[in-house]
Amino acid sequence: MRIKEVLNEELKSLNRLLGLLDKQFKLIMKKDIFGLEEVVDEIKLCNKEVAEWEVERRKITNGNNMRELIEKLDDVELDNIYREIKKTLHSLKLQKETNEMLIRQGLSFNHQILNIINPKRDIKTYNSYGALRR
Fold first, then answer.
1. What domains, with CATH codes, occur in the chain?
2. pTM
C-alpha cells in the first residue's frame, strides 16, 4: 500500500528532524556558534525532505482528512504509523519552542551586557507632561 510507504518515509524524516533539533539544543547549551550555523543548514534540508513527503501524502489522499481515511481503511498498522507521526510532531514542536526560547534568552542576555558595557550617552530631557524623554 503506497500510503504506508509514504507515511513511513515521512516518519523517518520527522525523526531525523527531531534528532537535528536535539543536536541544536546541545549546541545552544554549549554556546557553539559555529556548530549552530552548520546545524541550521541541515535542519533546512530535513525540513525540505519532510515537506516533499507531505506533498506526496497529500497527492495520494487527495487532500482528504487522514483520520477519516484511516478509519475508512480500518488498517491497524496505518493507524499506528499515523499516531507515531502525531507524537513525533508534538515532540518536534516542544523541542523547537525550547530551542527558540533559549536563543531568545541568550540574545537578551547579550543585549543587557552590551548596554552595561556601552550605555547610551544621550542627554535625557523632560517632555511637556514631566516624563523623562530619551
1. 2-133 (1.20.58.300)
2. 0.81
